[in-house]
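Extended Data, panel c. Modelled sequence:
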Amino acid sequence: MDLNTIAGYRLAHTRDDLHLAPGERLVAGGTWFFSEPQMDASGIVDLSEMEWPALEYLTDGGLRIGATCTIAELAALPARPGWRAQPLFGACANALLASFKIWNVATVGGNICRAYAAAAMVSLTAGLDGVAEVWRPDGTDRRIPVAEFVIGNGTTLLADGEVLRAVDIPGSSMRAATAFRKIALAELGRSGAVITGRLDEDDSVVVGITAATARPVVLRYPSPPSTARLRRDVSAVDGYYTDPLGAADWRRAVSAVLAEEIRIELVDGVTR
């Protein structure tokens, strides 16, 4: 897209460089920004020179994902002992249905901040209890669970001047068994429902619903729920929506079916 409203471009190297002038917009990979007109933007501040590490290991065995980490870098996450959740990273990356060119440019932070209902990185990080670290313009930080950070289709809790710095995945989530289901009306279409499941070390179960709902929904159980309990809870969720890629009642129904498949997979994995 030829953005003929853009009159300025600068690279950010330090936190002070992230203070925006009127009309400036932060860009990481830019795969969404350059895909359509940006009539209210007159300048670009490029995050690519901030030199944030793509991936870092946390002391509790967890993972820090830098906001400028590309989808390709995340999909190639090196294996570590005990990281049973690792298959979920590849599954969610592939749910993005993007070419290798997009994978090597699009960023995890950009996908989360764009906050589309079908954002694959929201599915991943919300399902693993990821916590967003947000830089405030006054130099302080705040931390928000990704499941709460996204509040609607294309809407987040980011205030003016705030920047997503990273997402931290706790070690307990990385050590959990996981499962993944996705459905779309077209074979290569945008996700109509994405369901993630997690069985933690303490036998608790977490089920994430994204793409089918306008914002992430996370259901938690102290032990594996029954079929009836899970179906009832998934069906009762608010926020299923209708658009050209699926009706709300269809999204509700398939989410219940996929959640049950995940429940069976996780329980079977424990009892085998």
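Residues 127 and 218 are 7 Å apart (CA to CA). This feature is highlighted in the accompanying rendering.
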